[in-house]
Write a structure and sequence with these properties.
This protein is of the alpha/beta class. Among the domains are: 356-432, no CATH class; 484-572, Copper Amine Oxidase, Chain A, domain 1. It is globular. It binds zinc ion (ZN).
């Protein structure tokens, strides 16, 4: 009997298997005491630092909801860097495992930090189950609320498994087939084919898939307010939603983060078995990347309003654990800088933020796409709306500099505007400090409320493990149930992974290449040939189409495919 055959029979008969945890490095901290809750709400402020909570408090002139539940800190680092990205941190929050930057809910692969143990070859880049998948399979309702496209890193880690956060069409398909009950945010274009104003290269219409499965699809705040029950996906923009500061002018039909959070809780809490909800203040990070305090702080205040909504529910409910965390700090923000000295007043700093009427991101939307076409008048308007006093000759100089620059395909119009404006702001004696346009590696604040509330310093993966324990989920067992390495149960002759759709792309030399955008697994092992489209939860077998309890995952770098045990059993019957 071959190893593969034996493994297959073992799989069919075994009630317990070698846990993945035997092979994978886990966080070093012991598990806190067991205590399960009915509901779990995780609110993630992307890119928020403790200094920014302080600034938001000065800005609002009142205590934040976050202040009431501050309980500790989170040590944020990924498997391959002291500075994590959102994908690795969200993977830790969703799965309890530390992975490499850029990867979504799959295990780490070398090179990794010397302080960590190197994973065994068979357990590199393997999909691992998330608390959202666990909540769904234990009968709870699940929800995601964000202001970025739903395919971005933080939501992506909860709903998908991918070797790269950039595989957004794969992430979208897995999110749809994974069956999130309530999803509210941006990113409609990732659900639609190109001939329906979408961006999907595989030309699938995932909105239709959702409708066929009984989901309501909505697109504005009025429709959101009318939803009273059921499963709903609200996609309020093709890509990202507007920054909170910009929404009233640029996108008044979009709901706020607090409104989306309230609706999600209202819908999800009708399930007697409880729910899991992840809410992200997605754009605090973007404001920090752009050194735009108006974007970061105003979005942080909007996030705090969502925390207030969730906290009020948790207090009324009594069976809800609420965590409010940040995945890393961005920008290296400080109150005060090299020039500001010790005589800062809240009026000075608040004034600097309040005179900004539009975020830099909002500005970009109002300018011509080509920076060469920005006029001196355009730039003057930009600077005025940022509350910056400049003379016309200075603006003309800026415009000349933009026109004279060497074309750089890696520099977006937004980045260029940011750099030019920040050059000017830098000479205006602003009183905030920034140390990087990227992320920074310091601890982030931890906030918690409810039964089993954690305190003290948590290592990043502790958050995910704590969430799983709070919901009574065994993530190792769930990973084995959802993600069987197909090559461990089917022979090379039985298993085929075939590209089923191609798009033309130009390579570096301008030559047209056929690039695969869709894959299907074909297995010729039982009485019939089985087909499983990658990123979907569908098994086609003997003329039947069976909906599986999990999605099929393909990791191109390792050439491996993973499918639920349920599918293996059906195929081997
Ligand atoms: Zn982030």
């Amino acid at each position: 009997m071959t190893f593969k055959k034996r493994t297959a029979i073992f799989l069919l008969l075994a009630t317990s298997m070698m846990p993945l945890s035997a092979f994978l490095p886990l966080s070093s901290r012991p598990d806190p005491a067991d205590s399960t809750v009915k509901n779990l709400i995780v609110l993630v402020a992307d890119g928020m630092s403790l200094s920014q909570c302080t600034m938001a408090r000065w800005y609002t002139g009142a205590p934040l909801a976050l202040d009431e539940i501050r309980s500790g800190s989170v040590w944020t680092y990924s498997a391959d860097s002291m500075v994590t990205d959102s994908a690795a941190s969200a993977t830790a929050f969703a799965t309890g495992r530390r992975t490499c930057n850029g990867m979504l809910s799959i295990t780490a692969t070398p090179p990794i930090l010397s302080t960590l143990s190197v994973p065994e070859p068979d357990f590199r880049m393997r999909p691992v189950a998330t608390v959202l998948e666990g909540a769904r399979l234990t009968g709870k309702s699940t929800g995601i609320v964000i202001t970025c496209p739903f395919t971005h890193a933080t939501p992506g880690a909860y709903v998908a498994h991918a070797e790269s956060r950039h595989l957004q069409h794969d992430i979208a398909e897995q999110a749809v087939h994974g069956g999130v009950d309530v999803l509210l945010g941006g990113g409609l274009s990732a659900l639609l084919p190109r001939d329906a104003a979408g961006s999907r290269e595989d030309d699938e219409n995932l909105v239709q898939v959702l409708r066929d499965r009984g989901f309501q699809i909505i697109q504005n705040a009025t429709e959101l307010s009318r939803i009273k029950h059921g499963r709903v996906w609200g996609l309020f923009s093709a890509e990202a939603m507007a920054a909170d500061l910009d929404r009233p002018v640029l996108a008044p039909e979009q709901p706020t983060l607090a409104q989306m959070t309230a609706k999600a809780i209202d819908l999800l809490s009708r399930n007697d078995r409880g729910f899991f909800l992840m809410v992200e203040g997605s754009q605090i990070d973007w404001g920090n990347h752009a050194h735009d305090p108006a974007h970061a702080i105003v979005d942080l205040v909007a996030f705090d309003h969502a925390v207030r909504v969730a906290l009020d529910f948790a207090k009324r409910d009594g069976q809800t654990l609420l965590l409010a965390i940040s995945d890393h700090e961005t920008g290296g923000f400080s109150i005060g800088n090299m020039q500001s000295g010790y005589s800062l007043s809240p009026e000075t700093l608040n004034e600097q933020i309040k005179k900004m009427k539009t975020t830099l991101q909002g500005m970009i939307q109002r300018l011509a796409p080509e920076p060469e076409n920005w006029t001196a008048k355009d730039l003057m308007t930009v600077l005025e709306e940022r509350g910056i006093d400049v003379t016309e000759p200075v603006v003309r100089l800026m415009r000349d500099r933009i026109r004279a620059r060497k074309p750089n395909p890696n520099q977006s119009a937004g980045r260029l505007l940011l750099e030019v404006v920040n050059d000017v702001v830098g000479s205006q004696d602003g009183s905030f400090g920034w140390t990087t346009y990227g992320h920074a590696g310091g601890d982030t604040p931890l906030h918690a409320f409810g039964p089993g509330r954690p305190t003290g310093m948590l290592d990043m993966p502790d958050v995910g493990r704590l969430c799983a324990r709070a919901l009574g989920i065994d993530l190792d067992a769930l990973s084995e149930r959802l993600f069987v390495d197909a090559s461990s149960v089917f022979s090379d002759g039985e298993l085929d992974v075939v590209p089923t759709r191609f798009v033309e792309r130009r390579d570096k030399n301008g030559a047209v290449q056929n690039h695969p955008v869709d894959w299907t697994i074909r297995i010729n092992a039982g009485r019939h040939v089985a087909e499983l489209p990658v990123n979907q939860n569908i098994l086609r077998l003997g003329g039947r189409e069976i909906l599986l309890e999990g999605v099929v995952v393909h990791i191109p770098k390792t050439k491996k495919v993973y499918l639920p045990v349920q599918a293996v059993r059906l195929i081997k019957q």
